[in-house]
Amino acid sequence: MEKKEDVGRILTNLQAASPSGFAIAFHIRFTTPDFLFQTYPKAWIDRYSEQGMVMKDPIVRWGFSEVGAIRWSELEETDEAGIIAQSKKFGLNFGIASAIDENGSRSVAGFARPDREFTDDEIAYLESALAELHLLTAHKDGMGDELLNYLQDMSVRFTRPRA
Fold first, then answer.
1. Strand order in the sheet with 21-28
2. Which pLDDT band holds residue 148 (cuts at 50, 70, 90)?
3. 107-138, pLDDT tens digit by residue?
4. What is the pLDDT of residue 163?
5. What contacts 24+ positions apart, CB below 8 Å, involve 145-153?
6. Which CATH number does the domain housing residue 86 bear?
7. Is residue 163, in this structure, part of any structural domain at all?
8. What does pTM read for this prediction?
9. First vs last C-alpha separation in the chain
10. Residue 14 has pLDDT above 50, yes or no
11. How far is CA 120 from CA 11, 89, 156, in A?
């Protein structure tokens, strides 16, 4: 029960820290995550999915090859498809990409806000929260049914937002 409450608390805090939303893919194997949480605006999620942007997204590309965190503004010059510019039309004006790789398991996240760049302290908090969630969601095959069901339910709820 404690892990479930910890996950819920962290996700709630991440929503507050990322007013324009976030996307987190946990424990990616090949190209499929064990869990995916997205709180970006539904219209952006729909457009992103319909246009197959994931394969061209500089945030995803960076997250698959690096660890740590980087501001989206630092990735714009590598954004040939203009995905970051398009996301701004949906209120994702500023953001960071963050990635962690522990023991061969990689989690990748994007966090966004509408009003300003994230501060260094905010980035440190987001990285810490991602690392904690990465550990809490590890070992899908060995976790208890209650936590597994909760994570799967939260993944559906976050990824299929109402309009």
1. 35-38, 21-28, 105-113, 94-102, 68-71
2. low
3. 999 999 999 999 999 999 999 999 999 998 88
4. 46
5. 146/1, 146/4, 147/3, 147/4, 147/7, 150/4, 150/7, 150/8, 151/7, 151/35, 152/35
6. 3.30.450.80
7. no
8. 0.89
9. 31
10. yes
11. 20, 25, 31
Tokens 């969630």 — which residue?
A: 133
The yes-or-no verdict on residue 152 having pLDDT over 80 is no
**Residue 134, φ and ψ in degrees, nearest 5:** -55, -45
Distance of CA 139 to the CA centre of its chain: 19
Write out the residue range of the structural domain in which residue 34 sits: 2-156
Q: In this structure, what are the phi and psi dihedrals at residue 32, rounded to the nearest 5 degrees?
A: -115, 125
Total structural domains within the chain? 1
Query: For residue 16, how many other CB atoms are within 10 A of its CB?
Result: 7
Residue 107, burial from CB neighbour count under 10 angstroms (0-12, 13-18, 19+): buried
